[in-house]
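We read letters as residues; the fold follows as tokens. A sample entry reads:
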Amino acid sequence: MRENEGVVARAAGQLSSRPLGGQKHARGLAASSSAGALEALLMTGVKTNNGDALNREWEIGAAQARFHKDGHWYMPPERFPAALIDPRGYVLFRTEREYSTCEHLRIGDRVNVPDGISAMPGYRRVIESNGLVAPRRGEARNPKRRSITGHAPNTSSPTSAVKPRSPRQRARAQGTTPSPARKRSVATARRVSGKTPSPPRGILTPRELLEFISILQSLFQHIRQLRKRHPLAKLLQFPKIPPFLTESLAVHLINARVILPSLKTPRLGGRAADVIAKSRSGADVLVEVKGTGTSAWIMLQPKDLAADHLVWIDYSDFFEVPDRTMVRVHLIDPKRIRRDRPRITLKTLAQSVGSSMSSMNIQILEFLRDLS
């Protein structure tokens, strides 16, 4: 234990003696090839590195880079290409659209990555768990390659390297067994080649919407059947209607001029709004989208009240009852909504805005079949 503490102390001393953000500082982040020493150093509270330094050191090529020691929380990037970095690798977003539509991110005042960026399909591992520099694309895996300090790993000292504790770990360290990062790359390649279906990203097509609606209806009806057969199943809740479903429907309804006919070329709006469309004059129009089931209530955020239009799709029991084919769409001017009630029901909203709210019934399944 004392020997390990000495390794960490020496690494921390090297870190504090070198200018922050420089190349030497970035290399000093892992002065030991031991993964344990690296993790211990991260827990010392010393600022280990920053995005700009690793962007230069690893030659990522991002216009802006954000760093977090655990890979879970980041400041939102403002320039693209942008990179999210953790101590062992990074994910690069080449465009703002690629970033704003990424299903692995929860974008708000901070960017939350629930599973960490290392679990994302596009994660590029630079430092492996044994402290060695991962091979670049096209390079052969070499168990004797240099560590990130520029020196060959020293395995003679018990404090300078973590010895594999199983034959599988030993084989992985020697490069004969695919690492987790390699397995993720293979899985991604299979999805791209069509061997394994990948989940849709961005706006769902009409055909995908029909398929997803069918899946969601089956799930609702399964829970309803369980409630009838098992008393404890009454504790089960129906799933939340996913926002991407309602936003995709809104985009197709606007694009087909079924709602808001003065707008054109709608698209997902990322942080600015749920949907952004163009007016006749070419100006951006912000549209917020809400979708509710039988509860029919929403929480209004400042972004909702600042939008130009609010589209509320009331599914009611559409997913719960098998023969339902229609939803009701409400169009509201956010400026007419009272701002002292963040939680508001559809009934209260109709009373509040009066005749300024327009509503229509839409045979949504027939609409989507016509588009597909």
